[in-house]
Amino acid sequence: MAVCRTIHLLKASNNAVQPMLVAKNIPCVWQRNVSRFFDSDILPQNLGGKSENVHLAWYGDKVLGVHVAESVRKLFGSSLHRGVASEIYSKAVSNSFMSEHVEILLPILSKAQDLQPKLTNETVGTIIETAVARMKMNGKIDAIDDLSEWLRTEALIAEIQEKQKLRSEILLNKN
Asked: How much is the pTM?
């Protein structure tokens, strides 16, 4: 059983937003739905998928982008800072970021050992985007929302960790 993480925001007295992670020990809606697809339904054509998948990936990219943008907007509400929101959004929808989390986002591929060497960042992104398009066409908006919130949360965590690491390096270099 996979663990889905969500983020809850607490406002400090100085109006700074402090993230607090909470784990839910339930299967992700995204994982349940993506595992129902046959490989040829979501794989690119060069990996044995359907020829229409290249067009579906383009559409899925746009659908995912809208859902991630909405998730980022909901997270920050009226305190949305465009620069921070753009950083989180860009990281969340990047092929490299999705590829870093391929075992979580595409658990079905962890069983396909023959495909592992062929999974580039772009290929993983294409597979996820094709799956998003197929879910949209099948009315599985809850799965797309789940994926979008997960990507947004993980991107936010990664941004916070990167900033903390950078801050630590700057402080070490001053000493």
From this structure: 0.78
